[in-house]
TrEMBL record:
UniProt record similarity statement: Belongs to the Orn/Lys/Arg decarboxylase class-II family.
Enzyme class: lyase
Name of this protein: ornithine decarboxylase
Pathway terms, separated by semicolons: Amine and polyamine biosynthesis; putrescine biosynthesis via L-ornithine pathway; putrescine from L-ornithine: step 1/1
Cofactors named for this entry: pyridoxal 5'-phosphate
Domain of life: Bacteria
Gene3D superfamilies: Alanine racemase, Lyase, Ornithine Decarboxylase, Chain A, domain 1
Keyword flag Disulfide bond: no
């Protein structure tokens, strides 16, 4: 908890549920990523938290941006980002969105299919394009599934096709899955990407860009390796695979920029024992799966939860949201404990909720409002 967030919480000047984000911590995280990977350009993954104060602060620090939609691109431009520093990183884009981005001056686009390439050739002629590889996401707490990416062989063929369509075959990308806790996934993916570079050089195409994606983890309940460990492992792998002819490196961190800069405050709505559940204690909060805590699905992301000022021993609790939907249960198997004295009206803090919370909230499911947002 940063001093700024602690002061805000003490002030009580907010209604719950609320999410407060310390922008100084965002800036510090950006600096730490830059220090760990000084040779890589940082493209903040806007989807992690697209709030204007965050984009403004990062643009001021010289961050670049990875955007997934035309709406995110407009938000980056409104924050003062130069269109030449925005990557349209979604491999699934409406042609109208590609055309508008291209008109704005966005030059860099992702793809992973021939069909998307055809759209790019039409709507963004002459643009720089990079092909997303499908790589192992083992070790990631929040994998991005098989929804994106293609094989190295297919990527090679598509990048040749890109040239023939009048686009600039610029490089390759991958994403090792979010909250990736091991460096091995990056190592394997970098070696795969280097093969595409080698294959294409033999065909007279010089790729420039190696986009390493996001995935860098933050500490929730369990320790994770520090960002320096990732930086060192990535640079060692890049040097091993590329020798002296290093490509332009790019990272797209989201969670690692904003995750630990935020805290959520929630009010306990009910705490009771459920006879039907073997007498287990259930604690219902005014924030839940539909209030932004979507990454608790499968108990994948396990937030630290505390109840400051509530004395007494902690005992096991199932933790659920306020809605009438049966899936609105955050944790029942992970083994959470909360003070046994916790009762309706008390407040709990859900830590490190700066990423993938505010925009995951539904607009009033069951009438419950999304969390109020505060940027400090
Ligand atoms: C979501 C996403 C990111 C950010 O991932 P983090 O795990 O939050 O760092 C980066 N790049 C792409 C293409 C993404 O979809």
């Amino acid at each position: 908890m940063t001093p700024k967030l602690a002061r805000f919480l003490d002030s009580g000047a907010y209604a719950t549920p609320a999410v407060a984000v310390d922008l100084d911590r965002v800036a510090a995280n950006f600096a730490a990523l830059h220090a760990a990977l000084p040779d890589a350009a940082i493209y903040y993954a806007v989807k992690a938290n697209p709030a204007a104060p965050i984009l403004d602060r990062l643009a001021g620090l010289g961050s670049r941006f990875d955007a997934a939609s035309i709406e995110e691109i407009r938000a980056c431009l409104a924050a003062g980002a130069d269109p030449g520093t925005i990557s349209f990183g979604n491999t699934v884009k409406k042609q109208s969105a590609i055309a508008e981005a291209h008109e704005h001056g966005v030059e860099l686009f992702a793809f992973d299919s021939g069909e998307e390439l055809a759209k790019l050739a039409q709507a963004a002629p002459g643009a720089k394009v990079y092909c997303r590889l499908s790589v192992s996401q083992s070790g990631a707490d929040w994998p991005l599934s098989r929804k994106f990416g293609t094989s190295a062989d297919h990527a090679r063929d598509l990048l040749i096709e890109a040239r023939d369509l009048g686009l600039i075959p610029h490089g390759v990308s991958f994403h090792v899955g979010s909250q990736q806790t091991g460096v091995g996934a990056y190592r394997t993916a970098i070696a795969q990407a280097a093969m595409v570079f080698t294959d294409l050089r033999a065909r007279g195409i010089d790729l420039r860009l190696l986009n390493l994606g996001g995935g860098f983890p933050i500490r929730y309940r369990e320790d994770v390796p520090p960002i320096e460990t990732f930086g060192e492992a990535i640079m060692a792998s890049v040097r091993a695979a590329f020798g002296n002819d290093l490509p332009d490196l790019l990272i797209e961190p989201g969670r690692a920029v904003v995750g630990d800069a935020g805290v959520a405050v929630s009010e306990v709505v009910l705490a009771c024992a459920r006879a039907e559940d073997g007498g287990r204690r259930w604690v219902y909060l005014d924030i839940g799966r539909f209030g932004g805590l979507a990454e608790t699905e499968g108990e994948a992301i396990r937030y630290r939860i505390s109840a400051p000022g509530i004395a007494g021993a902690a005992t096991p609790a199932v933790i659920a949201g306020p809605s009438c939907d049966g899936v609105d249960v955050m944790y029942r198997d992970t083994g959470y404990r909360l003070p046994s004295a916790l009762k309706a009206g008390d407040r709990v803090l859900i830590h490190d909720t700066g990423a993938y919370v505010t925009t995951y909230a539904s607009q009033g499911f069951n009438g419950f409002p999304p969390p109020q947002e505060y940027y400090l």
